Amino acid sequence: MSQDNPYVLVLYYSSHGTTKTLAYAIAQGIEDAGMTARIRTVPTVAPETTASKPAIPDEGDLYCTMDDLKDCSGLALGSPTHFGNMAAPMKYFWDNTVTLWLAGNLQNKPASVFTATGSMHGGQETTLLTMMLPLMHHGMIIVGVPYAEPALNRTHRGGTPYGASHVSGALHDQPVNDDERELGIAQGRRLAISAKALAQANWTR
Description:
Layout: E1 7-12, H1 18-32, E2 36-41, H2 66-70, E3 74-80, H3 88-95, H4 98-103, E4 110-117, H5 124-137, E5 141-142, H6 150-154, E6 165-167, H7 178-199
Parallel strand pairs: 1-2, 1-3, 3-4, 4-5, 4-6
């Protein structure tokens, strides 16, 4: 973990931009709580992965490196819902984190998840829950969104206790609304507070 400049990593993949919007809301909450948010994404994958993407994208957020992940104080992980699960580019990224798992680099760090989907019942909750699984295998501590947040009781679209979410509509033309954004900010704030507290804990292996 980076002691000189601790940060919470906001790692996302976004197909239509709404997962990215949630990522930036979560980053705002992290910064509001007094921690640095480091925003990273992952490259797309093709059916035949014979060619690799450049290390630095032409535009947008930088691609996440294993060092970005290893040195973080906490993690917010986001992906759109693809058939009730995380998107293939994000799954591919996590399938290549075995070295960090063997070293225990992510153990006892807080993590949270977020997602966006085209329909109200398009698998938001299954995506959030299945995104937690690799994080648990890495020994991370899952942080959700409590019902003490008023927007969680008020929302009629996205928003779950498992993590922030957004419903973009079948044409992906529905912007992130105020409640969804508020829950993203609250999730980032809670994650940062947890990261500060856990960083001070004395863990025994």
